[in-house]
Structures are given as C-alpha cells and as structure tokens.
TrEMBL record, chain B:
Single biological process term from Gene Ontology: transmembrane transport
Designated name of the protein: Putative aldouronate transport system permease protein
Protein location: Cell membrane
Transmembrane intervals: 16-37, 84-103, 115-135, 147-168, 189-210, 263-283
GO CC terms of this entry: plasma membrane
Signal peptide: none
C-alpha cells in the first residue's frame, strides 16, 4: 500500500519536473528536489505549523551557540557582542592557569562520579527486587511510594535537607544528642557535602529510574522463566541468567546517558546546598559560571568556562556512545 | 493451582531469598515515607512541640497556626498566585508548541523531517551555555518580565520525542490516506482526528510540563528581579534556605517568633508540594506511560 503510493507519487512528480524545466543534473537530486516541492505544496499547513517551534529552537538554542563567540572576545557593553574586540584564547588561558581550575574539575568529577557509582546500581536492585514480589498490592505500594519524591521540587528537597540536618533543631541532631553524641553541623562540613547531595538524590529518584527497568523486565519472554524453572534454577540464578541479560540493552542506555552527563551535573541543587563553609567541595563548574558571569558580570570569561564544559561533555557523550556501540551493540545513535 | 505448585517447589534457599527481599523493600518503604510523614506531622503541630523536638512520627498538640500565618502573609499569596499563573499559561504554551512540531515530524511525507529532528536533538547534547542564552533573553527585553519564565524553556526536546513516537505508533497511515481522499486539510485532520485520538499523550505532556513549571526556580532566579513576579519556589528559597523570615511576622516576641518561624518552614513545604502530591496517585499511570513511550528507541 505504502510502496504503491510512493511509486505513483514518484511517477507523477517526475512528469511534473520534466514539464517545468529541461532535464539537467543527476537523477537522484532531481527526484529529491521534486519530493520537496511536492511536500511543500501538499503540506503547506504543516510547514506553517512548525514555524513557531522552529523559530523557538533557532532563537533560544542556536542563536546562543553563535553568542558563544563571546568566549573569544573581551565583552564590552556599549559595543555589544559582535563589536567587542577579539582576544583569541585569552579567556581559556586565564581559566586553565587559574588555581581554581583543577578544584572545579575535581569537584565536578568527584560529585558526579560518586552519584554515578551509588546512583546507578540502586534503582536496578530496587527493580529486580520488586520484580520478584508476587503480591500485587505490596508491589504497587512500594512502587507508588518510591516514585513520589520525584515530584518534589529542588527547592523543597533542599529545604527538607536543611530542616532535618539543622545543627540545633534538626531531628537527626536531636537523635544524635539523645544517644549521647555531639551535634554535627552537616552542611558546614565540606567532607559531608557529596554524601548529602548523592544520597538525597538517590532518595528522590531511585523509584523513578526503577520504573524504566521494571518496564524492560516485563518485556522478557516468559518462556525463558519456564525453561529456567524446568532446569531447576533458583530465584537468584534466574535473576543472573534471565533478568539481567534480558534488560542489558536498557542498562547500557541508562549508563551511557549517566556517564555522558558527568560534566553536566545539575546546577540547581548544588547551588542551593552551597554555603561559605562547604564551598571547598561544592563549587562546581556550573555554579562557578553563574557566580562569575551573572553575579560578577564577567560575561566573556564565564562564557569561556561554560563553553569548555559543553565541549568536554559533548566529547564524553560521543566517546561513551561509540564504546558502547563497539562492546554491546547498544547505543543512542 | 499455580501458586500452590510454586509454594511446594520453593526450596529453602528461595524462601530465605524472598524473606531478604521483603525485608529490604520494607526498609526502603519506611526510608522513603518517613521524611514525608515527619514534614506533614510537624506542619500541623504546635510551634513549641516542633522546636523542642517532641514530634517524631505523629503530630503533637495539633494546631493550624502555621497555615493561618501563611494565609495572612501577602508574600506567600502573591507567590502562590504567580506560580499558578506560570503553571497554567506556561503549560498551555509548551504543550501547543510541542504538538505543533511533534506531529509534522511524525508524518512520513513531511519533507525534511530527518534534518529537523537532528536539528532538535542536537540541542539536547550541546548548548551555548548560561551566559549566551541570558544575553538572548536580554536582547529580547524579556528580563524581569513574566515572559522570561514562559518562553525561553517552552519546549523540552524529550517531550517532542515522546509525542512524536506516540503519533508515529497511534495514528494509522490508513486514516491519513482516507482523510486525504476526502479532501481534508492537514489542520482540520489534526483538530478533528489526531487530537481526539491523542488524549493519553496530551495528558502526559500537560502533567510533565505542569510539574516542571510548578517546581522550577532557576529561570526565575536568573531572569527576575521584582519580588512581585516571583514564583512560590523563589519565595520558599528566601524563607527557608536563606532564612529570611523577617517579613513574615512583625509584632511578636523574639522567642515566639523563632518558634513560629520553624513551624512556618514545615507548613510552607506542605503548601508548596501539596498540589503535586495530591494529584500524583491519580496520574501516576500517565507518567509511567509517558516514560515507556519515550524509552522506545527511534
């Protein structure tokens, strides 16, 4: 049916082209431009429809990429972005030579590396365990409750952390005091910052991520379980030999996305959890860009730092994706 | 019958395994739900009970003083109103724009769909960065206007991908052909066939964008300066995280004020999260659906 329609269309459009102008150029290109003209004529309403969204992407996503030339300029408010003088790689050099450079890299990688190591296996374990539960009610209850924190906003999440861990009134410290221990100023301890960030993140998103794995688990061919049962496999063996291989593609995709985003760790929560005491460990690239760029109005330098981050992230994503493609045949593109 | 068979066959190793699984899951359940209950209980306890650490699980000396004070605070009411506005208008704009691009991208006869799709997905993995985007918003004179929260982040690429794969799989080719035969225009077809058939995906889009808008604070932080435009999340940040409770209560004794300030934080969290958590149990299945549509590659 489809093929039929395409053939008919192809013939009709060839006739049209031939009638309009003498044949020139190669055959495929003629065909292609013909398809375009026909599509424009037939779907002009659709083209009209995509216009506003396309403008959105050009203005708010692609135009900023052009504006990123700021990184190679010395921004001057009066002259504007394009009138400001070029300075080549000076902003990048300044950044690389700045002692804070290695601190930022270290903090960014340590924080997201910790998040990756702890945050990757837990949702997977949760999904595998939930998948074993036979009581539908209990399963639904656990799923619903663990999914709920996903809807809590970052501001509320950080508010909760601050209330619970407050030095005097927070219930964690009250509990410590009751056990005869001294209070700890959790948010003032630089060494605690990463754990607080990572474990609250897991609390918030493990249930959400587990849903992805559960969906993949439900797609496993049931005959595999029956075969395993006939072979006398225990529950644990079924997990290792049926469940895990069955959802491997999903695991790889989630892992690629996680590793690829190592440098892009979110600004929002880190910024809210920051205070002068824990800044040694909590200043990451994105928060640094914000404070240098928007608070100190050092636009060019901040753009250079941000661009450096984006490029590293892009390289990382492409690299991880090609590695995954080579070793497991699963990839994003 | 089947279950009986299984219980008989279950080895002692498997039984132990299941005991471990149930124990761990129960612990997980408690770990997730306890902080939530604690917040709600604290918010309806008396200020003294909260500050003296008497609240552990259930409310102590139930009082609604916290909520009453919140209702009497203009800052909170303005923030709430603003958040409702941003959520309603922003969600409408976002869903409309998303459908406008996702549907044409799902049509096989739409020339340039692959190029357009690449153009869009590329923005997912690379961006100009914070400052260059800020400059664009500034050039458009959107800084410190409501538009800054409605337009610059109106379309999420992920939502476009989800909507597109829904249209691809749920609008049969035959329907399109039949409508073309009848001389139905593309817009008419979208309005009277596609949209009525796409209620599940529309629900997903509305919910995800709405929750995203309601919970957002970053755009407001960088683009807004006037306090009367602030969404609730920013008000929350200033009161709880920056500990700015001065505007809340004026004529009160120091001690009472401190106690009430603590209580207010809990009440605020409840007020800010309630709209989302109340609708959550009813809409959870749409969310799961949306995620599953999105996780189908292609």
């Amino acid at each position: 049916m489809q093929g039929c329609e395409r053939t008919l269309g192809g013939i009709a459009l060839n006739a049209e082209i031939v009638a309009e102008k003498p044949v020139q150029g190669t055959r495929p290109s003629r065909r292609r431009s013909g398809t375009a003209i026909r599509s424009f004529k037939k779907h002009w309403q659709l083209y009209l429809l995509v216009l506003p969204p396309v403008l959105f992407f050009l203005i708010f996503k692609y135009y900023p990429m052009l504006n990123a030339v700021l990184a190679f300029k010395d921004y001057n408010v009066i002259k504007g972005i394009w009138g400001s003088p070029w300075v080549g790689m000076r902003n990048f050099r300044l950044f690389f030579e700045n002692p804070i450079f290695w601190d930022l890299i270290k903090n960014t990688i340590f924080l997201s590396g910790y998040l990756l190591l702890a945050g990757f296996p837990i949702p997977l374990l949760l999904a595998l365990m939930l998948n074993e539960v036979r009581s539908g009610k209990f399963k639904r209850l656990v799923q619903m409750v663990t999914f709920a924190p996903y809807f809590i906003s970052t501001v509320v999440m950080v508010s909760m952390i601050m209330l619970f861990l407050a030095p005097r009134l927070g219930f964690v410290n009250v509990l410590l005091n009751n056990m005869g221990l001294d209070s700890i100023n959790f948010l003032g301890e630089p060494g605690m910052f990463r754990s607080i960030y990572v474990w609250s993140d897991i609390w918030q998103t493990a249930g959400y991520t587990a849903v992805i794995y559960l969906a993949a688990l439900s797609g496993i061919d049931p005959t595999l379980y029956e075969a395993a049962k006939v072979d006398g496999a225990s529950r644990a063996q079924k997990i290792f030999h049926v469940d895990l291989p069955g959802i491997l593609p999903t695991i790889v995709i989630v892992l690629i996305l996680n590793v690829g985003n190592v440098m892009a760790i979110g600004f929002e929560k880190v910024y809210l959890l920051q205070n002068p005491l824990n800044l040694v460990n909590s200043e990451i690239i994105s928060t640094y860009v914000y404070s240098i760029g928007l608070l100190n109005a050092n636009y060019s330098f901040a753009t250079a730092v941000g661009l450096f981050n984006s490029v590293i992230n892009l390289i990382l994503l492409v690299l991880v994706n090609s590695l995954a493609k080579r070793f497991s045949n699963n990839s994003l593109w | 019958m089947a279950t009986m068979k299984r219980t008989i066959r279950e080895s002692s190793g498997d039984r132990l395994f299941m005991i471990v699984v149930y124990t761990i899951l129960t612990l997980v359940l408690i770990a997730v739900i306890y902080p939530l209950i604690y917040i709600v209980s604290s918010s309806i306890s008396s200020p003294q009970a909260v500050t003296s650490g008497k609240v552990w699980l259930w409310p102590v000396d139930i009082s609604f003083q916290g909520f009453k004070t919140l209702l009497a605070t203009p800052q909170i009411i303005t923030g709430y109103g603003n958040s409702l506005f941003y959520t309603a208008v922003g969600t409408f704009i976002s869903v409309a724009l998303t459908v406008m691009i996702a549907y044409p991208l799902s049509r096989k006869t739409f020339f340039g769909r692959n190029a357009l799709m690449m153009l869009i997905t590329f923005t997912m993995i690379f961006s100009g960065g914070l400052i260059p985007t800020y400059m664009v918003v500034k050039e458009l004179h959107m800084i410190d206007t409501r538009w800054a929260l409605l337009i610059p982040n109106a379309i999420w690429v992920w939502q476009v991908i989800i909507a597109r794969s829904f249209f691809l799989s749920s609008i049969p080719e035959e329907l399109i052909e039949a409508s073309e035969m009848d001389g139905c225009s593309d817009l008419r077809f979208i309005w009277s066939v596609v949209l009525p058939l796409s209620k599940p995906i529309l629900a997903v889009l509305v919910l995800m964008y709405a929750v995203g808008q309601w919970n957002a604070y970053f755009d407001a932080l960088i683009y807004l300066k006037s306090a009367d435009l602030f969404p609730l999340q920013l008000v929350l940040r200033s009161i709880i995280i920056q500990n700015n409770s001065s505007g809340l209560m004026d004529a009160m004794k120091m001690v009472e004020r401190q106690q009430l300030a603590e209580l207010l934080k809990y009440a605020l969290i409840v007020v800010a999260t309630l709209p989302v958590l109340i609708i959550y149990p009813f809409v959870q299945r749409y969310f799961v659906q949306g995620m599953l549509v999105g996780s189908v590659k292609g």
